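Section 5: illustrative case.
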């Protein structure tokens, strides 16, 4: 049994050594999180080194107290993450932020699952390994931009919205992953109870948001004594986390949700200011405790894993996400800044590793923790260099990308940007039907991925039907957009714009069809998914080259200004007064377009 003196010594050692490690990390211009993790490894019970006949086995031998304090730190961390999530912050950036967050998370999870399958990891561990790989870091991205004095750049507002939405998605996935994973021998009744508990949890928070919080906030605002205010705030946080645990939902998700609800209240600023120091102290213990869970002997095992996955992450964030950002309306340099800023990995990845190593049925926790720590260290070191050179990177791509692809990319960006990007003059309104179809497609695709036998076939049929509906609806809407957008100053010199419709519809439907094929064949041959993804990439490039041959007119060069932060000024107007030769959709020839289909 650990004595009181030993407990106090351990707590003092952790706090002082964490302070030293954080100070050194700050001087090295690295995240303090890296310092906490490294010092946790050095003083943890899994550290064993023999030097000159002297054996060192770490300073902390009994982690029972540290584990409790670390859990409190995790609860406080998730509560503050929720406080940063504000729906009001997403009003201007919600559409591009949601699109980029969903695409970034989906690609990252796909790469993570492919990597886990390559390693031969079980399904439960693969879910959390994929989360570690996929989740970009809010804190790392913001710290880099702050250090580079780019917080005033126009794309930063969208980047903040992106990381906020991605954090929300990450927490939802974490809730489902850690709450829905049950032992193979669990019967259907226990599974139903689990689902019922989670449904009750979300119902409880709807009630809290609509009825309880408005009344509690009024009471909050009348508490003038800081001591009483702090006690009341902490009581709400831990009570909510406990209620979540009773409903078979991870307590950290309860803390996140109550933080998210209070973020929209008048007392959120006061809560942050009064609890900030309390949170920082316990979060430092959490990251130090995470370092204690890492076995240094396992670092050799995961070193090659980190070296293998880091180039993949850098490629898909800085190239693919940058390209998607450009396609939906950002300038090339702004898109490059967004993509490179998402390369960092930090708190969110550590959360997935910490929860994944403790969840029921997990068997690879010994590798998951050191992998997450090493990946966060490596990516956090690379990210500042990537963001700092993002403008040079964008200019280099502008010179190297062949004209057919730069031309088609400009056409896609000009078209989708009219709908996705916010504007003081809204010409096209978003359609609820497209959003509902895409959301349905994502949900049904997940159902196809996790179902078996008859249900697998049924869900696959539904998925194909939804994909077909997406094709027709998207094509209908793109026709209406293309009819009114001016493309003259980016090299389009023909009146027949059907090729533009075919280009954009083909790009979108090709991605949807690829997802259907991947989820349909994953359980039989996951290796095929890589071939399908590469096949879609080749298809997209060929489609862009075809569109170039159909649309480009020699002498109408794409202006170089399109590669700057400012979008090129369009000639004359966004509208064409004359009739074009683009045929109207056959399913809407004589009738006006329904309101829910208008852009």
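Designed sequence:
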């Amino acid at each position: 049994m650990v004595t009181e003196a030993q407990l106090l010594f351990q707590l003092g050692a952790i706090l002082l050594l964490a302070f030293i490690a954080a100070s050194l990390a700050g001087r090295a211009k690295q995240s303090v999180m890296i310092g906490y993790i490294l010092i946790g490894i050095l003083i943890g019970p899994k550290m064993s080194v023999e030097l000159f006949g002297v054996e060192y086995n770490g300073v902390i031998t009994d982690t029972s107290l540290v584990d409790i304090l670390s859990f409190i730190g995790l609860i406080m961390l998730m509560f503050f993450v929720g406080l940063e999530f504000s729906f009001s912050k997403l009003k201007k950036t919600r559409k591009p932020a949601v699109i980029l967050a969903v695409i970034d998370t989906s690609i990252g999870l796909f790469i993570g699952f492919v990597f886990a399958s390559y390693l031969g990891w079980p399904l439960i561990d693969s879910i959390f390994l994929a989360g570690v790989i996929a989740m970009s870091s809010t804190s790392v991205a913001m710290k880099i931009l702050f250090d580079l004095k780019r917080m005033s750049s126009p794309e930063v507002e969208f980047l903040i919205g992106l990381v906020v939405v991605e954090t929300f998605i990450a927490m939802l996935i974490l809730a489902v992953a850690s709450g829905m994973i049950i032992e193979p021998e669990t019967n259907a009744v226990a599974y139903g109870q689990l689902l019922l508990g989670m449904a009750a949890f979300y119902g409880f928070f709807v009630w809290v948001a609509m009825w309880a919080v408005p009344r509690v906030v009024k009471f909050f605002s009348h508490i003038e004594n800081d001591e009483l205010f702090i006690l009341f705030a902490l009581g709400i946080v831990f009570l909510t986390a406990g209620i979540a645990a009773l409903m078979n939902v991870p307590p950290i998700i309860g803390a996140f949700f109550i933080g998210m609800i209070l973020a929209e209240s008048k007392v959120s600023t006061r809560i942050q200011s009064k609890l900030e120091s309390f949170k920082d102290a316990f979060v430092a213990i959490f990251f130090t405790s995470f370092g204690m869970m890492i076995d240094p002997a396992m670092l050799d095992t995961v070193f090659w894993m980190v070296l293998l996955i880091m180039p993949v992450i850098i490629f898909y964030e800085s190239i693919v996400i940058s390209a998607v950002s450009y396609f939906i309306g950002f300038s090339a340099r702004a898109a490059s800044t967004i993509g490179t800023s998402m390369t960092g990995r930090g708190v969110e990845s550590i959360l997935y590793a910490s929860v994944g190593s403790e969840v029921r049925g997990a068997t690879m926790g010994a590798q998951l923790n050191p992998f997450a720590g090493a990946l966060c260290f490596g990516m956090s070191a690379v990210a500042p260099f990537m963001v700092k050179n993002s403008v040079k990177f964008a200019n280099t791509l502008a010179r190297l990308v062949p004209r057919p692809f730069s031309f088609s990319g400009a056409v896609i960006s000009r078209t989708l940007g009219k709908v996705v990007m916010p504007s003081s003059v809204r010409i096209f309104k978003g359609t609820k039907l497209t959003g509902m179809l895409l959301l349905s497609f994502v949900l049904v695709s997940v159902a196809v991925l996790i179902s078996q036998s008859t249900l697998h076939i049924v869900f696959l049929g539904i998925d194909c039907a939804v994909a077909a509906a997406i094709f027709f609806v998207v094509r209908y809407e793109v026709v209406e957009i293309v009819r009114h957008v001016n493309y003259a100053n980016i090299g389009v010199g023909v009146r027949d714009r059907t090729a533009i419709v075919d280009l954009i519809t083909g790009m979108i439907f090709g991605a949807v069809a690829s997802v259907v094929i991947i989820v349909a064949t994953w359980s039989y041959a996951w290796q095929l998914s890589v071939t399908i993804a590469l096949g879609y990439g080749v298809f997209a490039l060929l489609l862009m080259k075809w569109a170039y041959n159909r649309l480009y007119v020699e002498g109408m060069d794409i202006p170089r200004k399109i590669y700057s932060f400012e979008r090129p000024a369009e000639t004359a107007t966004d509208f064409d007064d004359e009739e074009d030769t683009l045929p109207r959709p056959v399913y809407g020839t004589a009738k006006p377009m329904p309101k829910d289909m208008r852009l």
